[in-house]
Every structure is written in structure tokens, then in C-alpha cells.
Design brief:
seven-stranded mixed beta sheet, 27 strands
Length: 762
Amino acid sequence: MKPLNLTLEPADIAVGNDVGLPAGLKRVFGSTILQHQRALYEAAKTHDVLIDLAPTGTGKTKAGLSVICENPQGNAVYIAPTNALIDQQTAAAEAFVAAAGLPHVVKAASARQIQSWRSDRVGGRSGEKLYNVLREPSILFPECGGGRPLLLVTNPDIFYYAAFFQYNALDRSNLASVFYRSFATVIFDEFHLYDAKQLVSLLFYLVVSQVFGYFQNNRKVVLLTATPEPACDEALKVLEQSGVRIHRVDGRATVGSVTPSQTAVALQIRPYLEKEEMIQTLVEQVCDRRQQFPKQQGAVILDSKDTLNRINDGLQARGYQDNCGRITGDTPKDKRHDAAQKPVILATSTVDVGFNFEREVEGDRQNLDWLIFSARDRFAFWQRLGRVGRVLGKPETQIPSQAIAYLPEAAWQDGLNESDGITGREQLAETLEQLDCLRRPFLDVYWRSEAFLEIARPLLELETSLEKTPGADLIVVLYETLQWVLGGNRDWQYYRQRMKILQGAENIAQKKTCKLSKDWKYIKGGRNLVKSFIQAYYPEDWEEVQRGDQSLEALELDILGSAKVLQKLKEYAIVLNISYAPLFRFRDSILPNVTIEDPRGYLLDSCGETSLDPLHLLRFYEFASEGDRIVVTERACQTYQLRFRLQVENLEEFSNTQLAKLSAFPNCEITRMIGDDIRPTALLSQLTPPLMPGVIVKEHRRNRWAICKLQKQGLASYPITVQDAWGESATYCFFPSLDGILAIASAGFVLKCPDNEEFWCI
């Protein structure tokens, strides 16, 4: 596979004018207002949803904040994609509000910040704190007195959990209510970073705003992205047909004058290399650039933290330790600034969002002359490429930049090797758009399947709150609008019933078995779960009920009269609850992060603690586990492979009943391997949950191609050895958590739920 060499022409962006702008916005933008900034502000006067598609680094934050001027006395919320960006955008919002003369009080609200709010004033629970502050900000922030509006800067996680009724049962209804009705302006920053389920929460909020009349009351929603997701854009077009007034601004119009935004870029696109070769190659590339162009400044941006750290070690060994700064998710805020002053910046995806590589002494030319980066999809490709050669507002704009991009080998198999004739940015964009391997998998699949089960949860909560009110009829309208936007063919009653079963599973799983004999019928969703339980475990009795030979009430009393059956009911509830839990988490992971100490600086620039994905720790590092302390001792000589092991009573029965079935498996452990040798570690037993959700599939000739394709697309799958009490064993393929649900469904297998209902519902 040969590299692809091309030259991207310089990029310009249209300049606007401040004629007729309010004095406050003239102070904000000065004489440097861009056309997309002006257009977004003007469009807010006549539209409900504003989408700013201007290139990265061209002032979309200010453009989005300008929309607040349409509702200058109303509360606003700015959703920044990362906690690191919350602080940065809070400062930007404060400066904007002050310059524009808006009355808003700006407050940051990450999970850590909410927890720090005084309990004696706003309560002890996180949801309670957030609700009370939004209901009456002056309780905690006296400067909000006199009715001053609040501009809350938070993250997508908090927005999702609030809008989807996911907080504590005591707070979820109150908090959801205030999130739906309190904000006159809602700004989603960098929303292209959202995955399928996160986009569902955004679209859900838009549909609620439409159906419940919030747009009619002048609510404005702003979406900021340089690289829109096509499937999301199609969904927005459908929403537009339902009456939502949507306006798109891209800043690329050439009416009037333009100003340079990015230099010409000499770009080389190469295939991914094996890890060791990648490390050696990138070290050589950086050293060559430092030797040949010592006055230039550049960066390396990779997805793999371990690869980046190894490159850092290699450059230090070559004597470049004083030239390199490292920026990862673990780098403290003040250290990021220091690292950005170095001529070579080594960074992970943490710089993809909102990090501008600013220098203390700004030069006349671009801050980055060259860039080496990897990209798994076209969104990351354009986001990272947009970091090099930025010259907006710079006096020197003619000096070209260089970039090397590493893409998956599959890009060449998809036809990139036939693209030698590419000339310019537009043709490159069209080419990358056609490469299947650079698309985000499963977006359409997700929306047309289990997404509806996810949105059934807030719909059910809304239905309960609106019961016996004139607004109750809006639930069906809301569901049908979502169905129109997202696709799917099941009606509301189907998902309503399924969600009531899961609601019962969640509540019964938390009850003591001894109390179930009297309480089960009074637990929310309890009767629905018991009905599901009878269908799954007592099918012959259920058929009698269906024929009318006995009543369901009599059967329930008969079956649930046994303590043994009640225990079985609770176990059924626990498995059902944990199996579906990944659908209702905003960010899904196999195992929760662990806190580790890094005394030798393998992960951190200085000694200290950091939070780390345990799978990353298990694959790349040696460590000591001392009580609650996990200390990294050295980097692994070889990358460990991870496998799962599952102990069952009878392998044949397991094979007949549990394969291709969503479930939560007990006695499932992770092992780390070098070749065929198991390398034990005490940490594994600490990390392994009592039940592991996912799907186990037998690989055979008919589905091997599908499994290979899914694995190439980056979905988490692992070999799993299932062994029974008789010593019989077999090896299968395990897709854990949410990735398992999406992968198997997308590959065309018919999934079964724990209650034997078919899961796949396109």
C-alpha cells in the first residue's frame, strides 16, 4: 500500500460586517466578525435550531453565545464535550457576557463541581443540588439575586442523565422538569463527537422542545460542529419537515471579502503500521524535522496513549527531552500550558476539542508548521488536520505547512489506492466520504433498534407525570415524532410494556427477597416483571392463562407462594437489569476506571495519581496492587492479550440456551495472556463484576466474515473460554456491554433477550 501525496490549497473564510449589530456584540467581535458569526446571530431571530458548520478554529463559540441575545433575560446552558473544556468555556462565556453587557451569571457544573456545592444550602445529593441551584440560583450564588439569569456550563453526561430521568429516584422528575423548561438558549458544542446514543439524547431534547411548544416560546438550540454526521443531518431534515425551523451556516460563502484561515498543506496519507514500527518511524520523523527545520513547531496527535508515551521515551533517548511537551487527558491544566510552549507537542485526542496550541509569544505565522497524526474516522481526520497551519488573524499567511496522516489499512482496500488524482480539499473530502472504514459504524442501526427502548424510559416518566392532564395525549405524539425522525417500526405500546418490565426489574433487584412476597405487586413495574417471569419460566402455565383456563392473578399467587421461586424472581430481575444497563449509560465501558499511582512517570509528566481504564492498565503495564493502592511499576515488555473465562454448570445446555442471547454472565473473569500463557494478577479478581453483560457468539463459517468485519471496525470483542463442571470447554467470541448488542445486531444475528423476546426490531 503506497502513501498518497497531495497538496491542499489554502483555506479562506468569509468576513462579515457589524452594521446594525447591538453595541454589546460590536464590543465582542470588534472589527473581526466573520460571516458565519453574523449569519448565526441574524438567523436566531427567525429560526429554532441553528447549526454552525464553520471550520475548526474560526470562532464558533462566540457565534453560539451570540444567540443568547435573542433571550437576554432567560437562562442558558452551554454543553461542553469534556470536563477540561468546561473551565475553558466558562471563562470564554464570562468574557462574552461582560463584553456583550448581558445580565447572566456564568457557573460551571461538572460532577466534581456540583458535588462541592454546599450541602447545607442546596442539599446532599448531586441531583438535589443541581435542581435547587437551577430552581433558585441565589440560594448558593448571591450574585444571582434580583432575578438575574443563569448561564450554566456543563457536560453532555449531566445533560443526558438529567433529561433522561437517570438521577436518583428522589430527584429525577424534578431535575428533568427544570432541564426541559428552564433554558431559553441551549448550546451543544462539538456535537460531532457524540456517539449514536448521545445523539439520540440530543434529538430527543429537540423533539420534546417541538412537541411541548418550547420552540413556540422562542427557545433557541445551537449546534456547533465542523464535521457534521450525515445520519444526524438526515434526522434533522426530517425534524425540519415536522415544523422545526432549522438554519445552517458554514462560513464558506464567498460573497464579499474573505480572510485566510489555514495555509496550504502538503499532505501525505499513510497506512497504519504495527505498533513497534509505528513508534520507531514517528521518532525518526520527529527527529528529522527537528534537524532539518529547527525553527519550526509541530505536533504528534495519536489515539493510543501508550504509543505516544513510547514515542516520548524514544525522543528523550535521542536527547530531545527539552524540546517535547506531552498533553494527555491526565496532564494537569497548568502543565498543558507549559507543554504547549515546546517546539514539539505530543498529544492524545484530548487536544481534539477546544485546545488551540496557543503560544505565550504569538508569532506572525501559524503556531503549528507540521503535524503527524492518526485518525480512525473521517471526523477525527478533519478535526486533527484543521490544527495545522492556522493563520486566522495572523499577518503571515503564505508559508505552507506539512502533515502526515496515518489511516487504517482498510482505507486502501476500500479504494484509497485508486485516488492518485485527488486535487484539493473538496475532492479529498468526497473521497474519504466514500470509504466505509472511516464511517462511524452502527449509527443508523442504533437509532432503528434499541434506541427506542432507551427513549422509552423518559417517555414513561413523562407519561406518569402527565397522567390525567391535558398533556397526556402528547406522549403518543412525541413518540411518533421520534419514530419519524429516527426510524423503527414498533408502536409506543410495545416499548411502553418493555420499559415497564425493565422498570420492575430495576426496582425488584433492589428489594430484599423476604419482602417480595407482600410487596411485589406494589412495586413500580412489579406486575409487569412477574408476568414476564412467568412467560419465561412457566410457559405451559402461561398458555393456560392465554386460553382462559385460569386467571393470571391466581397463577401469580400460586407461583410466588414459594420462597425459592421468589429468590428465582429476584435473580431474574438482577440479570435483566444488568443486561440492559449499558443502554442507559451515557458513556459505556466494560469496567469502571481505577485510580493508579505513577511514581516513575510512565503515564504522567510528573509523579502523582490518575484515573485509568483498567483494560489499558492490564494490556500495557506492570503494577503492584497493595490494598486500595495500584502502583505502576514498569511498562510491559510485550503487550498483553486479554481473554475472558466463564464457568458454567453444563456446557451443552449453555450452548443450546445462551449463545447469541443478551445476558449478564456470572463467574466471568478476565485473564491476561502472553501467547497461551496466563499471567495472573490479583487486580483481576478485584475488578471483575458479579455479572458481566454482553453477548457470546459461536464463530462458524457462515458468520466468520461478519465477526471479522466488526472487529476491524474497532468494536470490543474478546475470545472467551467456557468450561463446565465436567471439564468440557469451548471457545467462543464475546462482545461485552453495549458494543455486543450493536455488533451482533448489525451483523444480522437474531438476538434474544433474557426473557427470550427477540431484541432486534428494525
